[in-house]
Amino acid sequence: MNKSQFWNETAKKGAVLGALLALSAIFEMWVSISGKHAMLWPMTIEWIAVAVLHYYLLHRYTKQYSLGFSDEVGFTFWQGYGYQMILSAFAGVIVGVVQSLMLHGVIGYSNYIERVMNSTQQIIASSGAPMSNATQSMLAQAFEQVQQTQEPSVLSTAWGSMVNALLFAALFGLIIAGVTARAPRLFGGSEQQE
After folding, report:
1. pLDDT single digits (tens) 128-143
2. Residue 185 domain-assigned?
3. In whole angstroms, what is the distance from residue 47 CA to residue 41 CA?
């Protein structure tokens, strides 16, 4: 595979991974601002499903990439790990762009913060758990601090999403690169004796 093919294939696979993670991010944003207590369980299930699918896709793509290396050459841990980081960087860019558009363009950052705080208050109120004055004071102080923080730039939002994608790849990559790595076979594998 030449360099052009490598980057084209990696970008396509990174785009698939990025689309999955972007849809997940949109769903999680929607749940965060919806104020619907009942949506927390589906969001938890969705998060687990996306994590499993993310791992599966990284593993599958790395395995496919490793098959391009002959048995005589082998496939090192670092080749697999690096490949996953490149895939995740492409995916992270897509997620970052989508989250930035949603947070700064579609929803609006201040509107998003206000709706998340209202949603959190509704969930706490609907839980029926008694709250002490100290807890209420602490929540009020936390909400006030969130409202006073400066709005992040579009670039910092995108960068944060990319870093998250790379962190997942860094963790998953340790396992996947270890599983897909194979030592070179100098004599082309085992031959049967007659």
Report:
1. 666 677 777 777 777 7
2. no
3. 10
